[in-house]
Amino acid sequence: MKPIRVAMLGCGTVGTQVMRILDEQGGDLAARIGAPVELAGVAVRRPNRHPDVPAHLLTADAEALVASDVDVVVEVIGGIEPVRGLLLSALSNGKSVVTANKALLAEHAADLFAAAESSGADLYFEAAVAGAIPLVRPLRESLAGDRITRVMGIVNGTTNFILSAMDATGASYAETLDEASRLGYAEADPTADVDGYDAASKAAILASIAFHTRVTAADVYREGIAAVTPADVAAAKTLGRTIKLLAICERATRDGEESVSVRVHPAMIPRTHPLATVGGAFNAVFVEADAAGSLMFYGQGAGGAPTASAVLGDLVAVARNKVVGGRGPGESSYAALPVRPIAQVNTRYHVSLDVADRAGVLSAVASVFAEHDVSIAAVRQSGRGTDASLVIVTHSAPDEALRSTVDKVAGLPAVREVASVMRVEGEES
After folding, report:
1. Is residue 73 within 8 Å of residue 84, measured between CB atoms?
2. Rounded CA gap, 253 and 257, in Å?
3. Mean pLDDT across the stretch 326-351?
4. Which among 95, 102, 202, 322 is annotated as catalytic?
5. What is the rounded average pLDDT of the residues 171-197?
6. Which fold has domain 137-300?
7. pLDDT tens digits, one per residue of 39-71
8. Which CATH superfamily is 4-131+304-324 part of?
9. Domain parsing of the chain, residue ranges
10. Is the whole model's pTM more than 0.85, yes or no?
11. CA 20 to 30 Å from 59, out of 29, 272, 275, 299?
């Protein structure tokens, strides 16, 4: 059979592992595909910095490589430009694309899918969301006959490592971030991870697939973990909970109109919840569907070899399609559901207050909650001299009402400080 010629853009941690697997398992991959895979070239910015790659494969001219006689373009560079233009060019010319680029897909998936549709090419991106965990394909294919109502999970390994370490040791955010950097779990600039941008991009992709609606990163409400304190972690422990950075995508009906909400933020969850046991840099995602019920996907969410596994799985799929003349699924955005802002999303709050330890304080605070129609689920108060700590856990209510409640409570004469506010997930509301 004529070889499937592959151009690879980038050769960092993931690209190096893709090349290794292609070399070590080339015979098996050819048998699975029905044709051999031939690496036609590798585009990098500085070819002289890749001594382990055969010199005849290396090039600094990515545009020329994409325009050459190749069947598939594998992109593991990351970022938006110039990658967007390169992949649009490949797809427009009928060359299938395999990418791990979550940021690009979260911003420009519609353009990429349109280019693929116009030329009959494939666009696969399993590695963009959760490393080695098969998640995108089950949503696009296995559950295509079902109605997905919720996707919730841990999709960023760096933040999960930090929060797991804070929970285990009681250390501060800064201390655990330093440890994550030392062990290689955090980038030199960890902003994309710890501020929630990485998880927000993944949430946008998952929501788009699950709800057949175009969702971009700009539609995702986002909070990072930098404000999580040891006191928050200790408070969660006291209540039998732990703190995780969650990506939550939901379908809901309000006032007769169906819509979706997509958010990323730290939240307290019960220690009995399966996500509470996901430690270190691992990822896990729950999918809830009408017919299938609850499904959980768990595994390595990042790293060179795990991500390369997902890339190679996509490469096998698009190469098979090239051999038999078929196509994989394209974009499905027919539902076009509106995306609700966080203010209209029903959530629960854990509110910790430092208050004066005197009669009537709890009554005054409870009156504010009642005024905003926010029901209180639990209250815990402990005194320390003339001050006291007051912890309130609410029932589910619109986020806007909860925020307004907290703002007004903060202005009460007896309230010294709103020590922390955190959402609560994974429990009956």
Report:
1. no
2. 5
3. 95
4. 202
5. 93
6. Dihydrodipicolinate Reductase; domain 2 (3.30.360)
7. 999 999 999 999 999 999 999 999 999 999 999
8. NAD(P)-binding Rossmann-like Domain (3.40.50.720)
9. 4-131+304-324, 137-300, 343-424
10. yes
11. 29
**Do the domains at 4-131+304-324 and 343-424 have one common CATH topology?**
no
The three-state secondary structure class of 280 is: coil
What whole-number distance in Å separates Cα of residue 89 and Cα of residue 67?
8
Q: Quick one: average pLDDT of 363-383?
A: 93
CA–CA separation, 297 vs 108, rounded Å? 26
Fold of 343-424: Alpha-Beta Plaits (3.30.70)
Q: How far is CA 292 from the centre of its chain?
A: 22
Query: Which helix (DSSP H) or strand (DSSP E) does residue 375 occupy?
Result: none
From CA 338, how far away is CA 113, in angstroms rounded? 20
How far apart are alpha carbons 77 and 151 in whole angstroms? 27
**CA 259 to CA 80: how far, in whole Å?**
29
Instruction: At 61, list the tokens.
Output: 């001219």
Q: Quote the distance between the C-alpha of residue 119 and its chain's center.
A: 30
Q: What is the mean pLDDT of the chain?
A: 95
- Nearest 5°: the CA angle 48, 54, 59 is 55
Spatial separation of the C-alpha atoms in residues 10 and 83, rounded to whole Å: 10
Q: Is 202 a catalytic residue?
A: yes
Residue with tokens 């009460």: 412
> Which one, of 235, 241, 239, 203, lies nearest residue 219 by Cα?
203
